[in-house]
């Protein structure tokens, strides 16, 4: 989370309104931590587990109750979204696609600046080697990455949806030479970063090389590029950073 906070600040994390999508939010720990760091951000967590969404919502309420100032309350919302709504690339999604909001029955707009995800990614052959505390008490659907031997089924589906989730992001208009934005804030970097989005995802240590090979090879038209992998505190490659490319507007 610390690395992610630094990354978001580098890429415009302090420029409101920042919108983040947390895919597979679970208990909401990551999304709520970022909401505390970026109080003006709008963060939406989605999960296919109703229990996880209930827990995430309860945790968000606990965070809200500990805030001393109501105007500092993080803008966080957890939604129950069936897996087929966000991991099935065959679902028809038009330019005005929205995430369902099961609490208000309204439709939730896309256009997230960045996506974070800690999806199910454990290869099926590794499930039996998990510790009894995990294997006997955790939801297997939140752990196992699918039926494929590499455990990348869900990861691949999520990656394929990234361009849709981050589409229609409002662009900052800036002078190509001075880098002055139309709202008066200087910085050529700002004009550049608003044209693209990033996904930060936790994966199995065997996955970074596989994801890089997949994106560099057969899926050049997907609009997603592998940027880098990062190690956890044990020195294992467990996190990937992906670039979601969008057509750059004229300035």
UniProtKB/TrEMBL annotation:
**A GO biological-process term:** methylation
Any matching Pfam family: Methyltransf_31
Under Gene Ontology molecular function, one entry of this record is: nucleic acid binding
Give the GO cellular component terms, alphabetically.
Answer: mitochondrion
Where's the Methyltransferase domain?
A: 18-61
PROSITE patterns per UniProt: N6_MTASE
**Taxonomic superkingdom:** Eukaryota
What name does this protein carry?
Methyltransferase domain-containing protein
What is the organism of origin for this protein? Proboscia inermis
Give the classification, highest ranks. Eukaryota, Sar, Stramenopiles, Ochrophyta, Bacillariophyta
